[in-house]
Amino acid sequence: MVASVKKNLETWEQLISSGINGVDELTSLFDINESEIKQVIDEYPMFINPYYLSLIRDKGDAIYQQAVPSIAEIWESAGTPDPLNEEDLSPVPGLTHKYPDRVLFLVSSRCAMYCRFCNRKRKVGTTGMVTKKSVREGIQYIRSNKNIRDVLLSGGDPLMLSDGELFKILTEIKAISHVEIIRIGTRVPCTLPQRVTPALVEMLKGFHPLYVNTHFNHPREITPESTLACSMLSDAGIPLGCQTVLLKGVNDDAVVIKELLKRLIAIRVRPYYLFQADLVKGTSHFWTSLKKGVDIMSALQGHISGMCIPRFMIDLPDGGGKVPIAPEYIKGVNGDELIIKNYMGREIRYPVLEE
């Protein structure tokens, strides 16, 4: 148990300054192999702020696995460092232009907690990932390409920037006439909800239409603090969506996912995607079969409100883009009728309608 971890510090900056990023701090809390953890941290940075650390109940639980390094990260050889081919799809450093009308723009290299399954673990938390020059060149690229109507700020976590730094970036993008919407991809409402302050929310209100995609993976991540953070953003008119990643040993269970989705809707966060984990080197101990994801989606259909059900998605390797994977409900055709399986497993006939 980590019940004694101090999380009620006054500000998010204090929580960040009190986070742990070294082996000595970790070994004071958990019975771990110091040498193995050091090997991992030397390759992939670790940072856990006191708030998220306080959510861990036991070594190896769903929260622990997301935050605490495992030797499997450097022992595993499966996967590639950049499975989505982001680097080759980057016309300028830190900006990925995969789809015709939108770009992914990295504006921060820091996170409130470094997820061990991160698809950018090759560079998140390292110096040089995002620089003033890369941000400047990214904005210039967006300005020069009139096909871009949608900009997704990512990282790292954009909300790890100061209000002033984020305001400057948002202002420059908002001033580009062909940009219609801005999105922020952030795990902060889950991992450091104290960062969502009245001042931040008031500032963000000036950039509508603005959307926030956040990232909860387990029902225990929905706390009074995260509920408040999401409520503040919703009250400011900012639509919230959640992109959950399916992770072995964390949430690869229909009961867990169902509870998570119900709690998300209750705090006004729309479940958007359930992602198959990306094939990132050092993360294969989190990978699940496609069948597992399809089975979970089948278990949700009809047993939970449609508003709660995300799309099950794969972000294809080599820059292939996102595609939905759905359970197969049409079982066949019999004459002029389709044979369709419903959520209870019953086969029901439905007429084939001509166009």
Using the 3D structure, state the CATH architecture of the largest domain.
Alpha-Beta Barrel
Shape: globular
Low-confidence stretches are none
Based on DSSP secondary structure assignment, what is the total number of beta strands? 12
- Radius of gyration, in Å, reads 21 Å
Strand line-up in the sheet with most strands: 1-2-3-4-5-6-7-8-9
- Number of helices, where a helix is a run of at least 4 consecutive DSSP H or I residues: 13
CATH class of the largest domain: Alpha Beta
Helical content class: 25-40%
The CATH topology of the largest domain: TIM Barrel
CATH superfamily of the largest domain: Aldolase class I
- End-to-end CA span: 61 Å
Category by helix and strand content: alpha/beta
How does the major sheet shape up? 9 strands, mixed
Determine the strand fraction and express it as a percent band.
Answer: 15-25%
On the 0-100 scale, what is the average pLDDT?
A: 94
H/E element sequence? HHHHHHEEHEHEHHEHEHEHEEEEE
How many domains make up the coordinates? 3
Structure characterization notes:
With 355 residues, the protein is of the alpha/beta class. The chain folds into 3 domains: 12-75, no CATH class; 95-324, Aldolase class I (TIM Barrel, Alpha-Beta Barrel); 326-355, no CATH class. It is built from 13 helices and 12 strands. The chain has a 9-stranded mixed β-sheet with strand order 1-2-3-4-5-6-7-8-9. Strands 10-11-12 form a 3-stranded antiparallel β-sheet, with no helix packed on it. The radius of gyration is 21 Å and the shape is globular. The mean pLDDT is 94.
